[in-house]
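// run 5 | inverse folding | seed 20
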């Protein structure tokens, strides 16, 4: 039974940021409930990815598959360049800010991240805008869009510094364990406003150029609102002072550079395939292939959303738990793996089985991507279960260990691509090679933690969770496959209902009671535990 530890009266408001510990003070234990609370708000914050999936069929309808493919290629390029020239500052703050003793130190870490993360992106954006005409011929597009490529590059490249700022600002909030602050930014302002602007500019006759301008407008609004949120959790007075190479500034800079190679390789797996397909295939075929891969990747990102949400929560919590001993890290690591398995496996199986109906939203030509969708969904499910080890490795082990997984993943992906290139079509081959590399790159950190740190997530509770979850996954997948034979208008809502039901069953009957109780009031509302059952609060003893 869980004892409720609520003090009488109103709770005093905690000071912002991590506080220095005196000799008498005891660092509060990081529990499964901390993971669950952070996860809930982070999932909501990352639902912008789901909004993006819903809006993509509209973009394909308005601008055509080849036009959407050009947009997808340019946005993938922006993402790749940002991950190189932000110098790893988004990841660096996840390590240095939670370990800061004062608000001044936290502000110093943010100042360093902004200087070295946004500054280089501004310089690169200016250079690309100047040489846009020389870069344009590298892109394969439909003939009718050829004249648009140079101005599109000149306009859209300014998304680079804006995106770097938004990424660093929201990472700074997560580093303060403010997991829910991204919700309004990521969903309302970044995604919903983007589609509103896109429809408006399309109605005004801007054509495909309006999509690029809409993207810039949504990022600009998001960046402005990010500043307001930062003011609540960082001291702007301290932010404007300093910059003289203090220890926390040096640590942030070198932490970013240490993580940078791993970040670049991770981003390559997400965005490079669209660029490779565009370069491999001539003209409109290259643009269409990039668009099809982007559609497949976005559909699989529903499963990836689960892993990303856990990764965002686990990095700062594992850093805090490490101060309280490896037992705390081991507990939340095992708990997160059980929960992510119960959610990701049935979700991936149902979406893969119903992929034909899902692709109908994008038009008849999108069914070519069905094989890629199924491959990516299964790979993302495996990555979700294995990949929760990476954020733990980032905060408990030396940074050089992360590079091992990234390098092996790239080598395996390149090798798989070389073997497949003459045996399957370009889209399937590139997707399969990337997926094999993803799974390898996710599995190696788990082995590194087990061998080098004595940490693994498979405690005595995991086998029963896995067996029950697998049984529910198989039944739900078969049911979704049968439903997908119905007309799409009937099949789509049924597939979504099966996915939701399978996840509920997997969590309700697969997870042990303590795991379900850690979900708090959400667990009660969803009937995962009884209405009168006690729930765990942070700091409670089990």
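// decoded
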């Amino acid at each position: 039974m869980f004892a409720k530890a609520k003090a009488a009266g109103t709770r005093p408001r905690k000071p912002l940021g991590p506080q220095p510990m005196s000799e008498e003070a005891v660092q509060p234990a990081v529990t499964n409930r901390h993971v669950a609370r952070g996860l809930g708000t982070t999932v909501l914050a990352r639902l912008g990815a789901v909004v993006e999936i819903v809006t993509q069929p509209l973009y394909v309808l308005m601008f055509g598959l080849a036009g959407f493919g050009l947009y997808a290629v340019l946005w993938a390029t922006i993402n790749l360049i940002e991950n190189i020239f932000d110098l790893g500052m988004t990841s660096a703050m996840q390590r240095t800010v939670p370990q800061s003793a004062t608000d001044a130190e936290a502000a110093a870490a943010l100042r360093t991240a902004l200087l070295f993360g946004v500054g280089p992106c501004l310089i690169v954006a200016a250079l690309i805008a100047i040489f846009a005409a020389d870069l344009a011929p590298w892109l394969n597009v439909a003939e009718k869009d050829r004249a648009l490529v140079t101005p599109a590059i000149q306009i859209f490249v300014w998304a680079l510094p804006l995106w770097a700022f938004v990424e660093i600002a929201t990472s700074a909030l997560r580093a303060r364990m403010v997991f829910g602050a991204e919700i309004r930014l990521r969903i309302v302002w970044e995604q919903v406003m983007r589609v509103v602007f896109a429809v408006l500019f399309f109605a005004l006759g801007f054509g495909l150029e309006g999509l690029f301008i809409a993207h810039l407008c949504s990022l600009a609004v998001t960046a402005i609102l990010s500043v307001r949120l930062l003011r609540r959790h960082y001291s702007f007075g301290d932010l404007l002072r300093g910059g003289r190479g203090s220890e926390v500034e040096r640590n942030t800079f070198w932490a970013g550079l240490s993580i940078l190679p791993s970040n670049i390789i991770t981003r390559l797996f997400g965005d490079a395939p669209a660029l490779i397909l565009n370069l491999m295939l001539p003209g409109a075929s290259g643009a269409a292939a990039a668009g099809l891969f982007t559609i497949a990747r976005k559909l699989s990102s529903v499963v990836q959303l689960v892993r990303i949400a856990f990764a965002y929560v686990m990095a700062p919590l594992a850093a805090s738990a490490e101060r309280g001993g490896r037992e705390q890290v081991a507990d939340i690591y095992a708990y997160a793996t059980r929960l992510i398995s119960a959610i990701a496996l049935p979700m991936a199986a149902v979406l893969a089985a119903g992929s034909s109906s899902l692709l109908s939203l994008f038009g008849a030509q999108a069914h070519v991507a069905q094989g890629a969708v199924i491959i990516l969904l299964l790979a993302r499910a495996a990555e979700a279960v294995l990949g929760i080890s990476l954020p733990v490795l980032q905060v408990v082990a030396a940074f050089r260990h992360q590079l091992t997984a990234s390098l092996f993943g790239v080598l395996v992906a390149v090798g798989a691509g070389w073997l497949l290139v003459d045996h399957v079509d370009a889209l399937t081959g590139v997707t399969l090679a990337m997926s094999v590399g993803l799974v390898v790159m996710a599995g190696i950190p788990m082995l590194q933690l087990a061998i080098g740190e004595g940490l693994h997530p498979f405690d005595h509770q995991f086998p029963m969770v896995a067996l029950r979850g697998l049984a529910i996954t198989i039944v739900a997948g078969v049911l979704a496959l049968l439903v997908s034979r119905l007309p799409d208008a009937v099949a789509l809502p049924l597939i979504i209902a099966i996915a939701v039901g399978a996840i509920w069953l997997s969590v309700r009957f697969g997870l042990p009671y303590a795991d379900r109780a850690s979900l708090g009031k959400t667990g009660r509302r969803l009937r995962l535990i009884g209405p009168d059952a006690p729930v765990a609060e942070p700091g409670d003893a089990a």
